[in-house]
Amino acid sequence: MQPSSIAQVRPAEFDAWRAGSGAAQPVVLDVRETWETQTAAVRPLGFSVVAIPMNEIPARLAELDPDAPIACLCHHGARSQRVAAFLAQNGFEKVVNIAGGIDAWALEQDASVPRY
Fold first, then answer.
1. One of 74, 85, 99, 113 is an active-site residue; which one?
2. What is the pTM of this model?
3. 28, 52, 59, 68: which has the highest count of C-beta atoms within 10 A?
């Protein structure tokens, strides 16, 4: 699966995606570094947040449920796009990328999230 085939969800569309993701609670997989998640983070409202830095994803793949809807998040969307493609290649079928990352999240979804 090529990275371009990963669905893109803008933060402004996230609530609609979450509502249509089925019975399982969606997961926002934050793949930023620890200092980044300490600087700015999404508040879990109707979804859970799992923070695993991108470089640790292969070793920690078992921590993720392949049946859960997962929306990957980073600063601007590039790292999360690569992680989403990796997850799809490893049998995760309900994976999307949050286009624009936490920066767009702050602009479109939650103005209380600091931009950096």
1. 74
2. 0.94
3. 28
Name the residue among 39, 21, 34 with its Cα closest to residue 105: 39
74 catalytic per annotation: yes
Decide: 75 and 101 in contact? Cβ < 8 Å: yes
**Cα–Cα dist 82/88, whole Å:** 10
pLDDT tens digits, one per residue of 36-60:
999 999 999 999 999 999 999 999 9
Helix, strand, coil fractions of the chain, as percent rounded to 5: 40, 15, 45
Are the C-beta atoms of residues 9 and 100 closer than 8 Å to each other? no
Q: How confident is the model over 67-84, as pLDDT tens digits?
A: 999 999 999 999 999 999
